[in-house]
Design brief:
By secondary structure, the protein is an alpha/beta fold. The chain has one domain: Glucose Oxidase, domain 1 (3-Layer(bba) Sandwich). The chain is built from 6 helices and 12 strands. Strands 1, 2, 3, 4, 6, 8, 11 and 12 form an 8-stranded mixed β-sheet that branches. Strands 5-7 form a two-stranded parallel ribbon. Helix 4 links the parallel strand 3 and strand 4. It starts with a helix and ends in an 11-residue tail after the last helix.
């Protein structure tokens, strides 16, 4: 199901989905560190506890081409789990993107990789090799106020990030496609000077 959904979802304007759903929208403080990105892929999740850098390595090894790594920092917005080496490893695994509920580092190097990384900002403080027992890979995690399960679909662009189950994506897809298809005509009518009273829903 996911394989057939992803190409169609990638064709949708993600803010259009916001017309039809209320849940699954990640805190808008989590933004792309690159410009002009649009990503869609299934989630590989990691919960990082106690500034544990080793957990990220385990998550990277679990990734397959097209996956999006979603990182729950357990509320830590100071230590960066993503940097130049992490991004290079993710690219080597064929990752579509990384979304971290926290900060990233090596921002110039990250941009050079071309890998879309979404974060709350950047920092010079990084995670450490501490082997925390509280960390885990491919478990339900929290990211920007949203619960993300392994295999959920992660959509992101310059507007932000949203996640939804494949089932929910299938339910909203046709509505979103139809809305996007109708928008150019609406815009053309506005530009042509037609009365807004005949165009806008009131």
């Amino acid at each position: 199901m996911t394989a057939t959904l992803l190409p169609n979802l990638a064709a949708v304007s993600y803010p259009t989905i916001g017309h039809f759903l209320e849940d699954g929208f990640v805190d808008p403080a989590i933004q792309s560190l690159l410009v002009g990105v649009k990503i869609a892929g299934p989630a590989v999740t990691v919960r990082i506890a106690d500034n544990d850098a080793i957990a990220m390595n385990h998550a990277l090894l679990a990734m397959k081409p097209g996956d999006v790594l979603v990182v729950d920092m357990s509320g830590d917005h100071r230590h960066a789990p993503v940097g130049a080496v992490t991004a290079a490893a993710a690219v080597a695994q064929g990752a579509a993107a990384i979304v971290v509920d926290g900060v990233a580092t090596d921002v110039l190097e990250l941009r050079e990789t071309g890998l879309p990384v979404f974060a709350r900002g950047t920092s010079c403080l990084t995670t450490k090799r501490v082997y925390s027992t509280g960390s885990a890979v491919n478990v339900p995690v929290q990211c920007g106020g949203v619960t993300v399960n392994p295999g959920d679909l992660v959509l992101g662009d310059d507007n932000g990030v949203l996640t939804l189950s494949p089932e929910k994506a299938g339910q909203v897809l046709q509505q979103a496609l139809e809305s996007d298809a109708a928008e150019p005509l609406i815009m053309a009518r506005i530009r042509a000077g037609e009365s807004l009273a005949t165009i806008l829903a009131v």
